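Q: My labmate handed me this sequence with no annotations at all. I'd like to see what the chain might look like in three dimensions before we decide whether it's worth expressing. Could you predict it?
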Amino acid sequence: MVLSIPSGGTPVGYEIANALHLPMDLIIVRKVQIPFNTEAGFGAIDPDGEAIFNDNLLKQLDLTNNEIDAQIKKTMHVIHRRNRLFREAKPFPHLRDKCVILVDDGLASGFTMLAAIRFAKRRGAGRIVVAVPTASKKTIDFILPEVDELVCPNVRSRFPFAVADAYRNWYDLEDTEVMDIVGKIKVIRNNEKETKK
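A: Here is what I predict for the chain of 197 residues:
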């Protein structure tokens, strides 16, 4: 099955799920934002509330424990809100022994994807594939040992790397746009159920 990371991974995952005729769901993982630079993160949190941190970056940032805790709480709030909004807080699908394709719009630091990978492993996924349109070579080298396969047609080695640089028209998707895609997924599921009858 395809698991997409919202917001940017949602349209990418939708296209992959359609092309491969696979079920799709959203996996709500989120970077823990740096207080003074919300575009960057010092770690990520998965749907179970498990956090991973970029320890090297944390040392450089010199944040206090209170600042770190505040960012974790903000991130958890966003995860819970998105889970209610995008997934209606439904139980997560069973992943045991399934091939899981984890999708995002690109890999920057890779920590958000790493949180998704570790979540899928804890849920017993049989095979894990990461599929992204673009990533830095450094991040691919970081993620590759964690998965069975990584598909990325646009690998970049230039520093600094930004996912947006690989797109002609990149922007942060609004919640309503994600909801529109979620609605399309529901229609496909319902049609498949009708066909099987």
